[in-house]
Structure formats: structure tokens, C-alpha cells
Amino acid sequence: MLLKTRCACFFLTVLLFISCKTDTERARQKQWEETQHQLYQLLEDNTLSPQSRYAVVNRIANNLYSAKNYNELNLFLTSWVEEHPEDTYNAYWLLMVASTYLENGAEPVAEYYFERILKNYADLLVQGKSVHLSCLQHLIQISKTPANRIAYFNELVSRFPSNVSTTEMYVRLALEYEKEGEWNQVLRSYSQFLEQPDASTIQIPGIPDAYSNARQMVDFAKSAKDWTFESLDALETAVKNAISRYDWRSLDKYRSKVNFFAMSWKANGSDANALEYFSMHNFMRGNRIRYAKELDDSSNPNEAYLRTTGWSQYINVWYLYFRKVNFPADPDIHGRWEWAGIYYGEKL
Questions:
Q1: Contact of 183 with 189, CB cutoff 8 Å
Q2: Given CB 3.0 to 4.6 Å as the disulfide criterion, which of 7, 25, 101, 291 pairs with 109?
Q3: pLDDT at 275
């Protein structure tokens, strides 16, 4: 009997709690609706100052957003903009619309409104931040078209240089131009990047080798490129013949004159001594140099390795590294082959 009484009391308490909670929610909802009604009535007052009208519209919009009434929010703001073209805050109202669509996964619709703001409405500062700047930053993230992103990056650099890293912008511009095959613009953007004081130290998310890639491309573009060979076979034959004749002058001629490296397998191209220039004459004199009959098995259509020995009593084995030139900016050079470097020691 006592157990049944306790159970009955428990369920009565639960029912009372649910009832109270429902009554509370209903009260809050009623208060919210009354507040919104009062705000809508305020908007009908033609004597409101622009600042007061802004505060009322903003309060209505924020209330709708907090209540997650996104459809009503977007309808309210777009209708307001259409009916009040003189409102100086229309760019901000549409920014709220675009941001709401973006948060709810409707990126194409959000993109439409961001672009509409940039094209049709003057910029303004809201809480100290530029509406146009916000639009551009969002568009760069969601746009699927390289041509559009190029326009956005250029506008950021020209209009908001103090709000963005122009150094990073030039790199990202170069990558977008590359997707479009606009190689003159690629080189121009990389050259502008290299002119920035922080180019060699900047860390760009997702682009770990920005400086070395830019440096290589720009330097290669300015070079004579007269060390390249039409094919891998032609390059391999020329190098082997020069080694057989101990012709260090020809070997020095065949080496790439831009970004040639000589390093261990564990090192990388950014090491201080990786690009150090030296003449093959110092290593051929008095030594018995030999090369493998065939290229190394790890060679592929874009890279090749020739094992050689006898260069030094300290590091006897050198792998000569050949690679296909990747330079679409010059169709006559793109796809040719170059001797790009040396790896010291046996392969790891």
C-alpha cells in the first residue's frame, strides 16, 4: 500500500512539473509574440529616426533568429528591403539574410545575396565591421568558380589591404589563375608575392611550400632554359656520355641553372646548402666515375634516377635526379626534361 502511495505521488509530481513547464513555455511564447507585435507597430510610426528604425528592425530580426524562425526572418528582411529602398542599412539586412541561408546549408542562395550586396548596395560599417568585407570573405569560402574567386581576391587586395594578408592573397590568386590557365597572371601574382617583406616567413594554411614554389617558378620563367632536353632518353644519353669522357664542362652545362640541388635523401630543398653551386670538375678529377646501365627501378614517367659511383671517398654513391619540366606557361619548354639535382648516398 505504501509503495502504491509513493508511486502515485511521484507520477503526480511529474505531471505537475510537465504542466508547469508547459505553462511557462506558453507564457514565454505569448510574451515573445506580444513583443514582436509591439515592434511591428513601432515600425508603422513614420516619425521614427533612422537610428530608431534600425534598432527596431534589428530587434525584430534578432528575435526571429533566436526563435529559429528562419523562413519568417528572411521573408521579413527581404520584404523590408524591397519596400524601403531608401533605408541605408539595406546592405546589412541582406547580409543577415545571406548569413542565415549559409548557416542552414543553402550556399547557392547565400552566394546570390552576398553578390547582390556587392553589386547593388554601398558599403557600410555595422559594429565597426565592413559589410562588403564580410561578403567577400564568405564568397571566397563558398564560391565554386576560380574566375569568381579571382575577382574576390583582387577586390580584397584593392579595397581592404589593411584587413587581409596581401602576401597570402597573392599566393591564392596565383593558384586560382593557374586553374584558369592564365599563366602570365600566375607569374605576376607570384612576383608580387615575392616582393612582400614577409614572403619567406609567412605560414599559409594548406600551402606549406608557398615561397619555394613561387621562387622556383619565377626564377625559371626568367631563365634561358637552355639546359633542357627534348626527352629523358636524350638527357640520359648526354649525361652518360659526358661522364664516360670525364667531360665536366658538359656536365656543368647540362645541370639546371635554376633551383638545382645537391643533398642527402633526408634533407629537403629549403636547407641552407641544398642549392649551393659547385662545379663537377672538383669531383671528376682523379676519380673513377661509373654509372648504372639502366635507370633506377623507382623511376616513373615524370622523374628518373641514375645511380653513379666514384665521386668521393666520403660519399661514394650519387643518384642523379632527372625530372620532366612542369611549366605550362611556355609550351615549348613544358614537358621537356632537366637534370634537377643530386641525392647523396644510397637510397633510403
A1: no
A2: 101
A3: 54
